[in-house]
């Protein structure tokens, strides 16, 4: 009951969650991935060649047209190489902005989650609404489990080898497994795989800020394949805390975003 009241209060205080339609005008990703909004979004259709959309009732299937085109092309490519259908999770809300629950990025229409669970057949609407995730990481060992397969590696490569992609977040254990699987082989594309907390049941793809848009690019990914020291630091024992931890206040959205909010 209390959590329901809390959720209702949060929805009421987050005007972005009640925007029913995209903001009209030319497509424009505004601000940053974690403090931004989106004009001229379009929806990803619920199904297409090589993919099925999850949780359609959440209406988090809007994106910058560049993101929608990217996802549809990735799904077609993965279908062509024989992968089962991709399951696409959250993109953005009709006008972007912060989700009321869950992750804090996905605000400017350039982020999308693709699940590691594939769909060998067409899922019913009920199954897509309440899907069971496939977790690839054994938390106790901090390594991938036996569910991690060459199909996942193929998907990650297809997703990363696209000039529109800025970076892809995956669990450190998944990046490590990819580094090990490609030892001695060309693996430059692994640079875009960025180790991050969570992300053991889905990959999170982030596109570059499209030219002429009002978005702020992120610092570029470090040079190299990222299979060295930085990755290994994720597996080192935690260092003792030094000093006091400061909690950063969330960055404010650009003023431009206010104009996109309808009362
Ligand atoms: Zn995400």
From TrEMBL:
Pfam families: Peptidase_M74 (PF03411). Residues 1-20 form the signal peptide. Keywords: Hydrolase, Metal-binding, Metalloprotease, Periplasm, Protease, Signal, Zinc. InterPro entries: Peptidase_M74, Zn_M74/Hedgehog-like. It comes from the Bacteria. This is Penicillin-insensitive murein endopeptidase. It comes from Pseudaeromonas paramecii.
